[in-house]
Amino acid sequence: MSKGIPLISSLQRTLTMLEAVIADGGERSVSAIAREAGIPVATAHRQVATLVAEGYLASSGSYQHIAGPRLLSLLHRLDEKQVIANVAAPILHKLASQVRSIVQLGTFENDMVTYRIKTGQGASDMFTKVGMQLEAYCSGIGKVLLAHLPDDHLRSYLANGPFVPLTDRTITDPHRLAEELKAVKDQGFAVDDGEIAEDLYCIAAPIHMADGRVIAAISISRNVAAMDEAREKRVRKLLFETAHEIEQRVQSA
Amino acid sequence: MSKGIPLISSLQRTLTMLEAVIADGGERSVSAIAREAGIPVATAHRQVATLVAEGYLASSGSYQHIAGPRLLSLLHRLDEKQVIANVAAPILHKLASQVRSIVQLGTFENDMVTYRIKTGQGASDMFTKVGMQLEAYCSGIGKVLLAHLPDDHLRSYLANGPFVPLTDRTITDPHRLAEELKAVKDQGFAVDDGEIAEDLYCIAAPIHMADGRVIAAISISRNVAAMDEAREKRVRKLLFETAHEIEQRVQSA
DNA sequence: ATGCCTTTACTCATAATATGAGAAATTAGG
DNA sequence: CCTAATTTCTCATATTATGAGTAAAGGCAT
Question: Is residue B3 included in any domain, yes or no?
Answer without folding.
Answer: no
